[in-house]
Amino acid sequence: MARPPKAKAIERLKKALDAISDLRNLQSGSPEFMEWRESTRIYISHIFGDHSNRTREFERIYFSTPSPFYRIAYEYGLNSASALLKSMIEEIEDYWEDEKQAQIHSGTQANGRPSSNEVFVIHGRDEGIRELVARFLEKLGLKSVILQEQPNEGRTLIEKFEDHAHVAFAVALLTPDDVGSLQDDKNNLSPRARQNVIFELGFFIGRLGRNGVCALTKGDVEIPSDYAGVMYIPLDRFDGWKQKLFQELKTAGFQLDADRAFQP
Q: b/e string for 31-43 if b means 16 or more Cβ within 10 A?
């Protein structure tokens, strides 16, 4: 279940917090209290997750105890709930991104469509494959962002990378530019993508999610074991990769024209 927007989460928690003043005039067994406790638990689990510390903290609050101390326990429970809800609201206000900023970072709009037509092309040393993929993206009406084609403007490489990383989708080109092996198996070298490609692939998975990243592989290049769930498409000589990449982009929300994509 997707986390609610920042403003909605705060609104729900404040509603639960404001209700506590009326609950003080009731008892822990009242229908009104029982409804409040369950709805608040659901709110919290929806906002922070079913198995989050916040949900467990609320579930551990005791609102009743054997008489003659049940009233004291009830008041103590309400006070604890009030303090916890205030803490949650402060956490969201201070540390959650506003919805507009979150959409920029995720690369999507509120309607689920990409917020731009820019696609970052992660590449190694195979310039032929890079140009082939970039021109195909441009044929689809998308803008290829290739880092080395962007002006430096006095920035370091990582600064330049971060400045151009606000895209809606990323395509990683895993071409066999390097070789490597385990420390105790140096005679068994495997073709690998360059380290910058693996780094940037992981960066965009974290930024856009797995559905916002697609990897194209050439030959027998080694597939990173840490990035399970990412779509890997072989760069076959019959251009079948184009149809598969087209479908991935469509699934990501891009409005594409198949006739335009595959016309001679």
A: eebeebbeebbeb
Q: What is the pTM of this model?
A: 0.55
- The answer for residues whose C-beta is within 8 angstroms of residue 161's C-beta and 6 or more apart is 147, 200
Domains in the chain (CATH in brackets) are 6-95 (no CATH), 109-262 (3.40.50.10140)
115-163: pLDDT as tens digits: 568 898 988 888 888 999 999 988 888 888 888 777 777 787 777 777 7
Nearest CA-CA partner of 140 in 15, 37, 221, 259: 259
Record the tokens describing residue 230, joined without a space: 């990412």
**Residue range 151-206, pLDDT digits in tens:** 777 787 777 777 777 888 899 998 887 777 667 777 777 778 888 888 888 888 88
CA dihedral 184, 188, 191, 195 (to 10 degrees): 10
**Please, are residues 260 and 141 in contact by the beta-carbon 8 Å criterion?**
yes
Work out the burial of residue 74: count CB atoms within 10 Å of its CB; fewer than 13 is exposed, 13-18 middle, 19 or more buried.
buried
b/e burial code for range 228-257 (CB count within 10 A of at least 16 → b) = eebeebebeeeeebbeebbebbeebbbeee
* CA separation for the pair 217, 201 (Å, rounded): 13
